[in-house]
Amino acid sequence: MSGGLEILYPGESWPPAEPRHWAHGTRQYDEIMGTRIGRTVGYFVLAGYNRGTTRITGILAYSFSNAGSLMLRFDIGRRR
Questions:
Q1: Which of 68, 72, 69 shows the shortest CA–CA distance to 58?
Q2: Per the domain annotation, does 2 fall within a domain?
Q3: Which end of the chain is flanked by fewer CB atoms within 10 Å, N or C?
């Protein structure tokens, strides 16, 4: 722990130099969706659909600059 922040992926550059995609069911996906922001975004994204008809199938993380800005795209798809 450094300065009150836990480093989840030591040795990896952040924000990512290349886009990273985490599919539903992977450890990284579960870690992001387990955070407060992940759960909140999940509620907002899925609120526009009938309950039980869609799910977040993946998360894409990317950055437009080296200034530390991070963008997250939540992919949605039909439940099977």
A1: 72
A2: no
A3: C
